[in-house]
Amino acid sequence: MGLTAALTRAAAARPRVLLVTTPGGTPVRLAAEKELRSRDWPSASTPAGADLMLVAGPDCSRLGPALERLWQDMPRPRVRVRAVTADEVASVLEAGRARLATPEGDRGGADRTAGEHGHGEPGKHDAESVRADHAKDDRGFEGGAHARHHDDGPEASGHGGEHAGHGGTGHGDGDDDHARHGHDGHGHTGHGHGHGGMEMPGGLAMAEPGEDRDGLTLDRLHVPLGPFLADWPAGLTLRVVLQGDVVQRADLDDPPAGGPADPFWSRPWLRATTGEPVCVGEAARRRAAAHLDSLGRLLSVAGWPAEAVTARRLRDDLLEEAPASAILPRAERFTRRVGRSRTLYWLTRGVGLLSAADARAASVTGPAVRAAGGDVPARYRQWLTEVMDAVRQLDATAPLNPVAQESPRGRWDAERPPSAALVKLLPRLLVGAELGAARLVVASLDPDPDELTACRLEVARG
Amino acid sequence: MAEAGTWWALPAAPAMLLVFAVLAVAADAALDARNAGRRITAHTAVRPLLAVPRALLAQPRRLPAPDRLLWRAGVITVPVAAVLATLVIPFGNRVVADLSVGVVWFNAMEVLTWAGLWLAGWGPNAAFSLVGGYRFLALGLAYELPLMFALISAATGAESLRVTDIVGAQHGLWYAVWMPFAFVLYLAGVLAFSFLGPFAYPLGRDVADGVLGETSGVDRLLLQAGRWLWLAAGAAMAVPLFLGGGAGPGLPAWAWSLVKTLLVLAVLVWTLRRLPMLRADRYVELAWVVLLPLSVLQALVPALVSLTR
């Protein structure tokens, strides 16, 4: 007992955090990323690798089931906490850590799911209700470590749906037909297991084979990307059909019309359109930070975590009103290192080709149109250029003209936000791309789903 | 020149490997902290080791229809192969097993990780994990042949596959000096078979950690430990193959082995963060069109020298 308690305390000193951002949660995500970085708490990219789940942002009922599946997929010991505003991130994380450090026996029944403490929902997610909801999902609640001895027999069919998104994406999908996706996603069983009348392993259906682009017949795997994938636009869901690791089809889910979100990155432009005085310097600061956020995500997807951290540190310093003189040399160094990296260029060139004419035809504005060459390196270099331009304007005091000066993702228009055009392009650009390349394409356009939510709300109101 | 293994060499070799791996993890953590603007203290460097108590506590995964046997076998293979590979690596004047085919043994253990990692990707019955497993095979196609030619270059120079013979043959002139390209290829191969840094492709963040994505607890710990153990084993093997083993002025042989191993390890850890992750579709092209012909040419150099001697 003493040993377990000591181990528990030691392990809780550096919890791995699954940071899940709900639509509209951008400021909370930024605060959380900064907090995790300064505390040296690693960010997990799947529930399997996490101890602490931090839900950042307002409640979004439609994504509830997906969140619940992520939570179900986390191995014990685990804690779930939620931060609705950026200010409470630090305290909520600390509370989560304290909970993790308490040995299981001392935590009582309603322990690890009761992460939403302090938000007026005590007991809503207590262990009993979770058990009732997921009757078939008895993954070793009693005595954690022994779960491996459980029989995965007929019961496990209950996991099929449960596990749908996780298997494919590490994160859940949001709607009700996930069971089918789950089966297809997991059933790479065209490999000589029983067909026909035989019982399927674990009660899962087989993946159906189909012609692929090279004339081979390969299994089709239905894998949802999003809504909570790491380094992915929060809330966006793309349903892809994979053969091997090549995307054969990509369909866009409707963006979750969640709570009252206002797009953090375009806020100065929103305010300027309502007649509030906003100065150019403030908008430039926001634009530079937005591009650095996108760059951080792209670099993370491209597998260059060290430079992703650099980008995110610059972003956070910008948002904390660091003076231009402090930002400029660091931004220059970062721009040089990433922009001139031949390796990164060689690895990403030719991926996600989008000619300027096509982009214009799809009514895209912003950096994606200006990026000459139209592939991933052209787009990240365009971001870098614009970051440097914006950083040089940080002290400009002229009033912002929201029409003449673009928001980070393009010309601001409340009816048709720039991200809407970017999102529409995605399915077309993804087809035929290898999975890693598809992730690069999405990261290099980096649409902001918060803008879409804002648009829907306005339409609904009007 | 090498003494046959005394009884304590057998436990000492894995223990030393573990120490080197922990040092590499600590150095990497310190570089991470510097990059993230955190203060670097002794505490910073050992924080990643908190993953050990965490792994012992965590509940293992229960997934729909996993291939548990193969999954477990794959996960265990990776660190075990790394430890077995060290048996033929001389440290100073000592070696656990001075096999006449030591180089082949090392290479065979390294190829075992192909099977291990692929099985670890296959086992969980999940799409991203499977993609990760196959990614390692694609990467293997690219890095393995140049690596083999690098090993063969050293073996050809010594006209022996026995690692201690290779050390002995480097009297006065390290192979790293007159076979620099083989040395560089070997170091790249080390990063590749420890699937770290630029070669983290099977565990890429773009496929939600790929092979590692569905593992938790001890499984995750074994795979992660396997990566760093392989990095340490690769660094230790670079010393007898290319850097003259324990030879050097003044210090005893074990001290020279220690210094050289730590230096190689430092270079490797530093490299980890300098490059983005290499995508196999691009790297295969480079490997087969450029690296492989050059590595064959490199292997020709010691072959011609041996013929004319």
UniProtKB/TrEMBL annotation, chain A:
<protein>
    <submittedName>
        <fullName>Uncharacterized protein</fullName>
    </submittedName>
</protein>
<feature type="compositionally biased region" description="Basic and acidic residues">
    <location>
        <begin position="177"/>
        <end position="187"/>
    </location>
</feature>
<feature type="region of interest" description="Disordered">
    <location>
        <begin position="95"/>
        <end position="215"/>
    </location>
</feature>
<feature type="compositionally biased region" description="Basic and acidic residues">
    <location>
        <begin position="104"/>
        <end position="141"/>
    </location>
</feature>
<dbReference type="InterPro" id="IPR029014">
    <property type="entry name" value="NiFe-Hase_large"/>
</dbReference>
UniProtKB/TrEMBL annotation, chain B:
<keyword id="KW-0472">Membrane</keyword>
<comment type="similarity">
    <text>Belongs to the complex I subunit 1 family.</text>
</comment>
<feature type="transmembrane region" description="Helical">
    <location>
        <begin position="134"/>
        <end position="155"/>
    </location>
</feature>
<feature type="transmembrane region" description="Helical">
    <location>
        <begin position="69"/>
        <end position="91"/>
    </location>
</feature>
<feature type="transmembrane region" description="Helical">
    <location>
        <begin position="253"/>
        <end position="272"/>
    </location>
</feature>
<keyword id="KW-1133">Transmembrane helix</keyword>
<dbReference type="InterPro" id="IPR001694">
    <property type="entry name" value="NADH_UbQ_OxRdtase_su1/FPO"/>
</dbReference>
<feature type="transmembrane region" description="Helical">
    <location>
        <begin position="228"/>
        <end position="247"/>
    </location>
</feature>
<dbReference type="Pfam" id="PF00146">
    <property type="entry name" value="NADHdh"/>
</dbReference>
<keyword id="KW-0560">Oxidoreductase</keyword>
<feature type="transmembrane region" description="Helical">
    <location>
        <begin position="175"/>
        <end position="196"/>
    </location>
</feature>
<protein>
    <submittedName>
        <fullName>NADH-quinone oxidoreductase subunit H</fullName>
        <ecNumber>1.6.5.9</ecNumber>
    </submittedName>
</protein>
<dbReference type="GO" id="GO:0050136">
    <property type="term" value="F:NADH dehydrogenase (quinone) (non-electrogenic) activity"/>
</dbReference>
<feature type="transmembrane region" description="Helical">
    <location>
        <begin position="103"/>
        <end position="122"/>
    </location>
</feature>
<feature type="transmembrane region" description="Helical">
    <location>
        <begin position="12"/>
        <end position="31"/>
    </location>
</feature>
<feature type="transmembrane region" description="Helical">
    <location>
        <begin position="284"/>
        <end position="305"/>
    </location>
</feature>
<keyword id="KW-0812">Transmembrane</keyword>
<keyword id="KW-0520">NAD</keyword>
